[in-house]
């Protein structure tokens, strides 16, 4: 936990030192202010896209993990008959060997 705090703190310091024009960050037309901060720090659009890619890939991977976890929890609840239509959602697909219906529902 301490490692996460210190790495986040140093990342925050780097981001704050990378801002050269705060008004352009606040008035940016981008939907994500970090894009403007990265553009200022890298001084190019390609550099900012690369840095944003490095930020979004772990976020996407963690979202997939959360989705899989939610579907498995839903399947477990359906298996224990704690959800509506539990017989339908608790089915494990024979061909794919996974709870396909619960995955699609989530």
3D structure, described in words:
- By secondary structure, this protein is mainly α.
- Helices cover 73% and strands 0% of the residues.
- It is built from 6 helices and no strands.
- Helix 3 packs antiparallel against helix 4.
- It is elongated and about 60 Å long.
**SSE order, one letter for each helix or strand:** HHHHHH
- Characterize the largest beta sheet: strand count, sense, and whether it forms a barrel: none
Give the uncertain stretches in residue-range form: none
What is Rg? 21 Å
> What is the arithmetic mean of pLDDT?
90
* Number of helical stretches of at least 4 residues: 6
Kindly estimate the percentage of residues that lie in beta strands according to DSSP: under 5%
Distance between the termini: 31 Å
Tell me roughly what share of residues is in helical segments. over 70%
Helix vs. strand class: mainly alpha
Number of strands: 0
**What is the 3D form?**
elongated
List the helices and strands and how they pair.
Blueprint: H1 2-18, H2 22-26, H3 33-42, H4 45-79, H5 86-89, H6 100-105
Helix pairs in contact: 3-4
């Amino acid at each position: 936990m301490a490692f996460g705090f210190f790495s986040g703190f140093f990342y925050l310091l780097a981001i704050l030192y990378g801002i050269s024009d705060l008004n352009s960050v606040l008035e940016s037309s981008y939907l994500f202010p970090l894009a403007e901060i990265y553009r200022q720090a890298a001084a190019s659009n390609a550099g900012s896209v690369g840095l944003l890619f490095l930020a979004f890939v772990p976020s996407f991977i963690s979202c997939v993990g959360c989705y899989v976890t939610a579907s498995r929890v839903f399947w477990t609840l359906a298996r224990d008959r704690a959800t509506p239509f539990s017989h339908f959602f608790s089915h494990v697909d024979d061909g794919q060997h996974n709870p396909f219906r619960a995955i699609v529902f989530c």
